[in-house]
Amino acid sequence: MPSNLFTPIQVGNCHLLNRIVFAPLTRCRNVKTVPSDLQVTHYAQRGQDPGTLLISEATMISEKSGGYLGHENLPGIWSSEQTEGWRKVVQAVHDAKSFMFIQLWDLGRASDPETIKALGYDRVSASDHYTEDGKNFVRGLEVKEIKERVDFYVQAAQNAIQAGADGVEIHAANGYLPDQFLRWNTNTRNDEYGGSVEKRARFVFEIVAAVVAQVGQKKTSIRLSPWTRFGDMAVDEHKSREQFEYVVTQLQTQYPDLAYIHVIEGRTDGHQDLEVPQWMNNDWIQNIWKGPIIRAGGYTPESAVAEAQTNDRTLVAFGRMFTSNPDLVDRVRHGKALTKYDRSTFYTQTGEGYVDWKNAD
Ligand SMILES: Cc1cc2nc3c(=O)[nH]c(=O)nc-3n(C[C@H](O)[C@H](O)[C@H](O)COP(=O)(O)O)c2cc1C
């Protein structure tokens, strides 16, 4: 029986020829927040199998939204120069006949305290609190600032589409700002943005509504990580399930034509593998969400084939293994061995370990 992984599927406006997705991967090869020629080569290599979906590395929607360590080597999409940089990357992916979504990123409290201060901004989150064992203060956003953040998403989405991208992915996973609003440990507000499951989800839905109004449902998608503790996010079998079930249910009710929902399995925590209990699974999502669903985190060629057989709308994203196998799709298709990745070059700034991985013979 042919595997679903190699059966075409429509995702948003993209007619994909396979269901293996290039996962968003921060790789720090930008120059002054502008995508570089190295990235043009890197993404084109990974889009070499026609009809493959690539999701960009997390891309800052404003300067205020950044402030990670190594800020300058991470991409933005608020200026015309950055948009121009992305246009070259997207063009190269399109030349390879593949597709690209740009991941929209607001770090919130995940910013580095010194870096965000040097940029001239406060370190912010859903609510006032201290992090790093009480050493660093994080300020809760005022309502007018929340509206400003939503406007940043809209401008970034518009720029991404102007750069030629096939869509945008709202990064609401891995402990960044939208995720900080969803979790009860970082969101202790008691106004309309906190205090209940519905109110904690309000920021996410304001972003989705505004981005959809700008670019349409078919060019909008979202990434969620219900079970991820990365960034010190609170996780609880029942509370997390209730929170994320609400989000997915509302997405299905209000935005059934989103390009896709992308979920990270609990067994990977941002960058590494973990042992997790059985209740930390995302299988329930496909019973609520009826559109395309991308599953990511710790998949092997064998488990990806099995996952894709569970229904006719599951795609599987690969992260680490795509770094070291530019022809990953073809290797999985033909059962060829995969080359192990090299963690030491994940976040360096040169082409080594980035554009020099070879296709299989
Ligand atoms: C080097 C590296 C960078 C990452 N950067 C991002 C990112 O920018 N955005 C994001 O949503 N996830 C990011 N992730 C998580 C991956 O998208 C993916 O969920 C994770 O690697 C698990 O998939 P894998 O087991 O196939 O590697 C990153 C992971 C790694 C290893």
UniProtKB/TrEMBL annotation:
Question: Which family does the record assign?
Answer: Belongs to the NADH:flavin oxidoreductase/NADH oxidase family.
The NADH:flavin oxidoreductase/NADH oxidase N-terminal domain covers: 4-337
Q: What is this protein called?
A: NADH:flavin oxidoreductase/NADH oxidase N-terminal domain-containing protein
The record's annotation in SUPFAM superfamilies points to: FMN-linked oxidoreductases
Entry annotated with the keyword Flavoprotein: yes
Q: Which UniProt keywords apply?
A: Flavoprotein, FMN
Give the Pfam families listed for this entry.
Answer: Oxidored_FMN (PF00724)
Query: Which cofactors does this protein require?
Result: FMN
- Cited InterPro entries: Aldolase_TIM, OxRdtase_FMN_N, Oye-like
GO MF: FMN binding; NADPH dehydrogenase activity
